[in-house]
Amino acid sequence: MVKLSSQGSRDALWYKNAIFYELYVRAFHDSNGDGHGDLPGVIQKLDYLQALGVDCIWLLPIYPSPLRDDGYDIADYYSVLPEYGTLDDFRRLVEEVHRRGMRIITDLVLNHTSDQHPWFQAARADRNSPYRDYYVWSDDNQKYKEARIIFLDTETSNWTWDAQAGQYYWHRFYSSQPDLNYDNPAVRQEMLNVMRFWLDIGVDGFRADAVPYLYEREGTNCENLPETHAYLKEIRAYLDQHYPDRVLLAEANQWPKDVRQYFGDGDEFHMGFHFPVMPRIYMALRRGDNRSLEWILKRTPPIPENCQWCVFLRNHDELTLEMVTEEERQWMWQEYAPDPRMRLNLGIRRRLAPLLDNDRRKIELANSLLFSLPGSPIIYYGDEIGMGDNIWLFDRNGVRTPMQWLPEEKGGFSSAPVDAFYAPMIQGEPYGPQRVNVASQQAQPGSLLDFTRRLISLRKANPILGWGDFTWLDAGCHAVAAYLRSDGTERLLILNNLSGELQPVHVLIPGLETATTYDIFNSTPGPGVANYRLELSLAPYAYRWLRLE
Ligand code: NOJ
């Protein structure tokens, strides 16, 4: 394990306690009235993100693309989708982000390109093209049978016949996204070149898409292979050598023990999403029972000190139920996706607020967990104001609708006629912009936005939440998730009542016979610890963050 001292200052480990914000450029703000959000539009809203307390923005793919997978099908790694602006706009964005003391990371899509990418076009047109070997071809569709299909609702095989090429090509996602062949050193070098290009512009790192699937090997499920880790370590070494202080965030939708491998010995990814904890937050909340959370947290191995989990409640995809049992999945669907249209692949295409019945208590509680469990939190755009979704839109588009800035029909998103919007604004009660928007919540103390801002500033004032150890505690009942964040000098006790009933709590605090406590959320003294024990009552869905003194 790499020791902190050899990794430089805490500053270089900025991601250990950063607040991330996932931003979909098309949805955020339209600066030129064409109905599509764009990079200048994002620049115009940076003050908003800064005031919210965001440290690092993650942009969904911004590259030229036929948009069969909303930009995750890249046709050119070195440019910007014209609807979003120009490379100069992007440079200006990076500069403006940095000027405000924030950081920005972009999506690095390693696993596949678009079938429209010139590499694939050349590859399919000519067996002797040097690009043929950039992709994975076969004369039949019988190889790698143990690899699962990810986009179950659309794809029936990971192989697609290409008439022009006269062979099948391999793809883990849509058939319009052929997988790159990482056995080819030229491909491995291409991706280092792509990284260098964006790092030279000044991005602070990458969220690396779909990393488990880079290599294929017969007789395996083609996920998390040693070859994949070896290449990812190469990427990291390159970054460390030329661009220290930048970050790599892994998207590996896997069990914690498998994601653990992506941290290596602190020499692979700096960060990794904690996928399995996410659905269990929803499970715990609906059941009013902490056991699913406890179960996964106890199965989350320690990670090197220079690494960090990234925790989230929602993102731009369906709420994935890949990391739960079949029985749990059925239960989650039944509880959270009663309308079959809410289901997509192995997940649920809904946003945070509708999932939690637009109940402010539940939304706050989920955020209390998000901001206090081990890891750096990431907020999905719009969730800070409680935006709704539109399950009737295609694929995952219903959770990617325009950001709601103002209380008016167009939500202050764009001046274009509404029928020119890239996607319809959420309409009507209770989620339309008249009700849910940034401006009104900015003007209203106690709004969800105000709460989110307070939560962020509290988190920043207590770095122990990013750095501290985590100890699960027995609260005397299953309805309460209780844990300690500590670092040798400080201790923070977090209590979350997952249930809709008043809960008497009796927590045993190891090693602390007596103490006073201070409620850092409400800035009031809390109940004392006597004889290693703290007792209090928690209102339905209430949470307390108590500093032990
Ligand atoms: C994961 C991304 O989050 C998702 O949106 C995309 O469709 C797949 N990877 C394929 O790139």
**Ions, cofactors and other bound molecules:** 1-deoxynojirimycin
Strand content: 15-25%
Please tally the β strands and state the result.
22
Please compute the radius of gyration using only Cα atoms: 23 Å
How would you explain this protein's 3D organization?
With 549 residues, the chain is of the alpha/beta class. Helices cover 27% and strands 19% of the residues. It contains 16 helices and 22 strands. The protein has helices at residues 25-28, 39-44, 46-52, 87-99, 118-125, 185-201, 226-242, 256-261, 277-287, 291-298, 326-336, 352-355, 360-372, 438-442, 448-461, 464-467, and strands spanning 20-23, 56-59, 103-109, 137-138, 159-162, 167-170, 205-209, 247-250, 271-273, 308-312, 319-320, 343-344, 347-348, 376-380, 469-473, 480-486, 491-497, 503-508, 515-519, 524-530, 533-538, 543-548. The strands form four sheets. The chain has an eight-stranded parallel β-barrel. Helix 9 (277-287) runs antiparallel to helix 10 (291-298) and helix 13 (360-372) packs parallel to helix 15. The chain starts with 19 loop residues before the first strand and ends with a strand. Mean pLDDT is 97; it is low at 1-8. Bound molecules: 1-deoxynojirimycin. 1-deoxynojirimycin binds at residues 69, 72, 109, 173, 209-210, 251, 316-317.
Kindly summarize this structure in a few lines.
This protein is of the alpha/beta class and 549 residues long.
